[in-house]
Structures are given as C-alpha cells and as structure tokens.
Design brief:
With about 325 residues, the protein is α/β, with parallel strands linked by helices. Helix content is about 40%, strand content about 20%. Strands 1-4-5-8-9-10-11-12 form an eight-stranded parallel β-barrel, surrounded by eight helices. Helix 3 runs parallel beside helix 4, helix 4 packs across helix 5 (about 170-180) and helix 8 (about 250-260) packs parallel to helix 10 (about 290-300). The structure holds ligand PBG.
Length: about 325
C-alpha cells in the first residue's frame, strides 16, 4: 500500500517524538559568558539586551546564580581599568579577571571557571597582540599569552581559553602551565575562529574593537573549510584538551567536520551577533522564543558537545 513507509507514524504524539529524539540539549552542555570590570556599578550593554558588565562582586553573584540554575561553567571576559600598547593589565596579579576568578573560586568552588586568554580587551589599539609594522607579531605575543595564562592559573582558573588565533599559542601555554605545576589546568583552544562580522556586539561590550585595520591576518577567512582541519589538527598536536568552532550557526559545516575528524570534546561559540540577532527578532515578534532552543539544538546536531551562549541562563530556567 502506497506510501509504504509512513514517516509520520513516529511524529503523532509528543511522547513518541521524544522517544525517537536523536539530539538532546541539556543544561550540562552550556557555558555562560560573563563580562567583568573594575568599577562600582553594573552596566547594561546596549547592543546585547539582557547582558551586563558586572563589577567583581556582581560577577561573583552572577556566578552563584549560574550555578544555582544548574549551568556547569562560565567563561570570563575582563575590561581592565587601563589599556596600554602591550595590554599589561591582562596579567596583573590584581587584574580584573584574576580577582574575579579568586573570589568566584572561593564562593562557588564547584563551578567550572574558564578564562578567555587574549589581549584585545587590554591593548590600547584593540588588536590581539603586540604590534610591529602595523601587524600583530606572533612570537612576542606568545610570551604575553603565557604570562596571562599563568596568572589566570595562579588565580585558580580551571581551564584557560586562548582566543587570539596566534600560531603556536596552545603549545606555548601548555608549556608554561606544566612548568609551573599547573599540569591539571585544561586548555580549550578557540581552534577554528573565523574573521566574522558577528562579533560586533561583543566588541562594544568588551571595548575591544581594533582602532586600525582588522583581524584578517590572524582570524580565519570565512571561505575556508579545509584550513579549519589544519588549525584543529595543530591544536590537537600542541596539547589542546578541547577544540572550539566560532561563530556557531554560520559555521555548522565546520562543527560537523570537526566532530567527524577529531575525538576531543568540541565546543561551539554562539557569538554576540548571533545572540543579538535572535534576541531582537524575538523582541519584535518576528519569531517566537522557541527559536532559541532551535538554534542551540542545531548547533548540537551539527556535532558540538557544548555551547558557549548568552542564552544559557534563559534556557536553563525553562524545562526541556
Ligand atoms: C577576543 C574574543 C572575541 C570574542 C571572544 N573572544 C572577539 C573578537 O575576536 O573580536 C567574540 C565573542 C562574541 O562575539 O560573543 N579575541
């Protein structure tokens, strides 16, 4: 009898649909980004509705809430009190991230604390490293990334996440951590990070836009697929514990390739532009709120084991 294969049989009721569900989204998969800076008051970020920049104490409270909601991890981004050419506030013992990590670890020890390791929030020019001849000098920048990572580890970070796309950054960081008895601190490498237009709101939030040129000499061209394989492979060889693809939704093919080819856990970063785009569309009643879950399930279906997302808290509040 035609049609002899009726796909709709298993879609008739919710319970059956749940039974055959191929991809699940769980709170355990989420990492919530928190922006922190040294000032008294909390600031709204106009381009990212619902996301704030917290003072250190505020970030500690936020971390507690995140834990209470059942989200396992946060990633911290810092806005320093001062910026200079080398970004030296990035590795100060009493820097904004170092202090936040210390306090969060004291008050919410069971939360996994990840720190973003990059210079763009700390340099006066907004680039992710030391400038020589109008470009970021790779190997000198590695020395600074080592100092930053070490200072984050000393403050108590569980995992460091280098995001600057410098060649050799994972190896350099692994070495400095191991040499200083931080062999148990993990590295999530932003291994396949593209030169994306979707970072705009983040750069407002972190005040990290480059004041000349752009990041094309270190972040990947959006046209590249095979090159992501090489980037990932190098970071595996250099000792990364997890890989990351960023942004997420415009790069689902890269997430899938990475999943198929590597056995390390894979994170995907649903970045600020993706967040604000969905958020604004919901606010304007163009799409329903459930679009958030659809965006996250699509990232998981593509192969991400975990997702860094500004929606983490909202999602964790819902039952799903
Ligand atoms: C820093 C960094 C960026 C993001 C995370 N770490 C921005 C950039 O490369 O300019 C973007 C995150 C987001 O857009 O949510 N190197």
């Amino acid at each position: 009898m035609f049609p002899n294969k009726r796909m709709r049989r298993l879609r008739r009721k919710e319970t059956t649909r749940n039974l055959v569900k191929e991809t699940n989204l769980s709170k355990d998969d989420l990492i919530y980004p928190i922006f922190v800076e040294k000032r008294e008051d909390t600031l709204d970020i106009p381009t990212m509705e619902g996301i704030k920049r917290f003072p250190v104490e505020g970030a500690v409270k936020e971390a507690k809430k995140v834990k209470e909601l059942g989200i396992p991890a946060i990633i911290l981004f810092g806005v320093p009190e001062e910026k200079d050419k080398k970004g030296s506030f990035a590795w100060k013992k009493k820097g904004v991230i170092q202090e936040s990590v210390r306090k969060i670890k004291e008050e919410v020890p069971s939360l996994t604390v990840i720190t973003d390791v990059c210079l763009c929030e700390y340099t006066s020019h907004g680039h992710c490293g030391v400038i020589k001849n109008k470009d970021v000098e790779n190997d000198e920048t590695l020395e600074l990334l080592k100092k930053i990572s070490r200072s984050h580890a000393e403050a108590g970070a569980d995992i460091v996440a280098p995001s600057g796309m410098m060649d050799g950054m994972v190896k350099a960081i692994r070495e400095v951590l191991d040499d200083n008895s931080f062999q148990d601190i993990g590295i999530i490498s932003y291994s396949a990070k593209y030169h994306s237009n979707f970072y705009g709101p983040f750069r407002d939030a972190a005040e990290s836009s480059p004041d000349f040129g752009d990041r094309r000499t270190y972040q990947m061209n959006p046209s590249q697929r095979r090159e992501a394989y090489i980037e990932n492979q190098l970071d595996v060889e250099e000792g990364a514990d997890m890989l990351m693809v960023k942004p997420a939704m415009p790069y689902l093919d890269i997430i899938r390739d990475t999943k198929n080819r590597f056995n390390l856990p894979i994170a995907a970063y649903q970045v600020s532009g993706e967040y604000s785009m969905i958020k604004n569309a919901i606010d304007q009643n163009l799409i329903p709120e459930e679009a958030v879950l659809e965006s996250l399930i699509s990232i998981k279906r593509a192969g991400a084991d975990m997702i860094l997302t500004y929606f983490a808290k909202e999602v964790a509040k819902n039952e799903f």
